[in-house]
Amino acid sequence: MPKKVVLAYSGGLDTSVAIRWLQEERGYDVIALTFDLGNEKDLQTVEKRAIELGAIKALIRDAKTPFINFFAFPALMAGAVYEGQYLLATAIGRPLMAKMLVDVAQEEGASAIAHGCTGKGNDQVRFDVSTKALAPKLDIIAPVREHRMSREEQIEWANARNLPIQHTKASPYSTDENLWGRSIEAGMLEDPWEAPPEEIYAWTKSPADAPETPRIVEIDFVEGRPVGLDGHEMDGVTLVQTLNQWAGEHGVGRSDMVEDRLIGIKSREIYEAPGAWTLHNAHEALEQMTLSKPQLRTKNSLRQEYADLIYNGLWFTAHHQDLAAYVQSTQRFVTGTIRMRLHKGQATAIGRKSPRSLYSYALATYDRGDQYDHNAALGFIDIWGLPIQQQAREQLLADGQKPFQLGTSQGSEGA
Ligand code: ARG
């Protein structure tokens, strides 16, 4: 009996050719596995095509709910942003796909998994490393990375075998999407001086063409997780889909950046993540109100680490488990509602409330009703300033020295 491989099948040219290539070149029976992470696609057609191409089985897995609950929302709670502009939509999808590939491989008795990544991107690393972490014994095959056929060569190869591949007009761009966002690269974007053409965007209106009137939306969070919009409780998938619509309409969530890939090159990337950016900004506003200063500091210092870990394919690691445990603990009082304004490309927090707020009107106000103890401030300053006063008297100002002259660097010139 031929050995079996489970291929992550998107329905596109690369993975369609891969079905036949895995059979012909490697002698595998191919099980095609297609994921639904909220990428809009006609899944029935994809399934049918896999069988026509010779797969022995075609499976579709709807993974929208686990994607949001176990991948996107934890990344949101961690505040993970890669290099300041990327909310990691593609990157957080990969470990979930790897997990499903491994699960199906085990169910079906397959000895290998396969994916359509090239040898130049981050996604191959994420698939491979996640698979190694989950099932160290499985073989990993990346047909495109191995055969290195160009698009034209693949079409020729497919035509020579009469393969029913889809003859769509070749898009010059490489795109990837799921509920958390859309990634666009290649084509004319490879010239970093070229402004991104409007046609590459599918989810967001240009901020210039967005409505003059802002949309106001209230987002409810419970322990760091978004649970409702405008007072209506909602499951995570519906909530993110809805916000993608609303915020996309106002041009929220576009990024245009030059990013550092794990495999050592810089690349020009465009992203649109209207819902995710709205949630990110709202979540941050709620944390400002519900976390103490040292909690905010420490958590912020770990954000970068968390983003790198996701970007670099290290989801299934003990290090991630440790960081996630810390993040989760920080979220236990991050409950409340943030009012956001969506307007001309911006998602801005304009109102916040929380039953666990550390903000106190009675302490903060300058008006009547002030309960802050002003005398306590005096006492505090006496103690806070005590060592400074002592040092000034005994050392810095001793013998008529004038150490803090303007125009010298903190008065330490020549020291
Ligand atoms: N540069 C991004 C990342 O590494 C996006 C990759 C998009 N993938 C794609 N096949 N177009 O996460």
Could you please describe the fold and organization of this structure?
The chain has 415 residues and is α/β, with parallel strands linked by helices. The protein has helices at residues 13-24, 43-52, 64-78, 89-108, 123-134, 143-147, 151-160, 236-249, 274-290, 293-311, 318-330, 361-364, 374-396, and strands at residues 4-8, 29-36, 57-62, 112-114, 139-141, 174-178, 181-185, 215-222, 225-229, 232-233, 254-260, 266-272, 336-343, 346-353. Helix 3 crosses helix 4 (89-108), helix 4 (89-108) packs across helix 5 and helix 10 (293-311) runs antiparallel to helix 11 (318-330). The strands form 3 sheets. A 5-stranded parallel sheet has the order 3-2-1-4-5, sandwiched between helices. Strands 10-9-8-13-14 form a 5-stranded antiparallel sheet. It has 3 domains: 3-170, HUPs (Rossmann fold, 3-Layer(aba) Sandwich); 175-291 and 333-359, Argininosuccinate synthetase, chain A, domain 2 (Alpha-Beta Complex), CATH 3.90.1260; 364-395, no CATH class. It starts with a strand and ends in a 19-residue tail after the last helix. It is built from 13 helices and 14 strands. A hairpin with a 2-residue loop joins strand 6 (174-178) and strand 7.
